[in-house]
Structures are given as C-alpha cells and as structure tokens.
Amino acid sequence: MPQSIIGLLTQKISWGSRAKVADPAAVPYSIDFSSLPSPQNIDLSTTQFKNTIGDVRTLYIDNSDNNATVTVLNAVTRQEMEIPAGYQAYMPVVSSTPQFQISTAGAAIVGFDFLNVQIPPFMWNAEPSTTVIGSILFAGSAGTDHSVNAPAFPPIGLTLLADVPANTSRALIGVQYQDANQCRIFLVNAGGTRTRILLESGGGAGVGGGAWTSQTFKGELLVYATAGDQVAVYEQ
Predict the structure, then answer these.
(1) Are residues 116 and 172 in the same domain?
(2) What predicted TM-score, i.e. pTM, was given to this entire model?
(3) What is the dihedral of CA 127, 131, 135, 137, to 10 degrees?
(4) I need a labelling partner for 151 at 20 to 30 A (CA). Which of 16, 130, 225, 236 fits?
(5) Does residue 130 or residue 68 have the better pLDDT?
C-alpha cells in the first residue's frame, strides 16, 4: 500500500493556515455516514480554501472502513469516481471550483485528502488479500510458512506498552523502537481485524531499532515489547 506517496507533500495544513498556492499542500476531510445522511456535499471553492491550496488536482479517498461503495461526483465537471468497499485510492481531478457530492449506502467514516499536486491514479484493497501483483522472484525454500496463520494475540512474553485509540482526524502516527529486544505493533481496523508488524531491534550503542509511520491509518494502534523497553510513539 503506497502510504509514502503523500510524503511528496511538504506540509499538511489546516483550514486556518495560509500557504503559497504553488506550494504542495493538502486539506484533510472526513464524513461520518453513521450519523449523517447520504449524500453529503463538500464545497471547497470558498476564498479561504482558495488562498490555502488553490486548485484541487488529486483526491485521496479512504473507504477502508466502509462495507459499501462510495461515490464522489464533481458537481462542476460531472466527473464521477467510485471506490469499492474496503478500498483506498488516489484519483486525479481537475477542478478550479472544487465542489463534490459524496454518497454511499454504508454507515462508516469515509476520509479524504484534497491535494493540489498531481498523483497518478492508484487503487488498493486496505485489507489483506491473496491476490499476487507481479511475478514472484523468490518463493522461499524449506521451512514453514507462518504468514498464512493469524498472529498470536496478545504476543507471548511481551507487554503492552502503548495503546493509541482510533482517531479519524489523525494526520500522522509513528513508532520508533529504540531497544535491543523485540517489538511488535498491531494495527486494528474498525472491524477489529489486527495486522501485525515486527520492528527490528537496535544493534547496540548508537544504533536505533525499526520504525513505522503512516499518514493514512486512522485505527487503534497497539505496541507490545519487553517490559521496560524504550519505545517512542507519536501522533499528530
């Protein structure tokens, strides 16, 4: 999943800030369809928005927690985009008057980033999949493929050091492991599915361990490591 694509942006800004229109920038937005009716309209053609970001050239859509397709209609150009349930996508748009109508039959939070830089279209399933994209260059040799089994939870011998609750307005979250044992983080989506990521230990004095960051993950984050280990967790 290309979470690093949004790293092309030099800043993540809020409604109250100002930037040069030419600067790469993004405006985050989310709609909770569990409490709001469908469709919902987003009008970003105000003077405040235009001074902040200018034209919208790419739309990031996070429909990973929704069990229904979300449809985005550009009210000016009539461009229509459909993102299936459980998917995320970057969709190019060209709109100097960014007005969008968002509709879905689901009852979940759908997230958006409105970007003023062009990113090629790309769509991916946020849930684990058995689909293989491309050619397998090395399939392993002797041994047991443990990846086909659900990870042990909670991990045996490790202690829960941090539990970061889900946050739909989150712009960035990261973990830096700084000790010499082992650290495992679990990403928990709205449906309770856990994805495990192993962070490598530090190799000695002056050597940091593994790190993980995301600008799209909005769910709960669990950090397990040996009791007393040094782990940094940050969020904005």
Answers:
(1) no
(2) 0.46
(3) 60
(4) 236
(5) 68
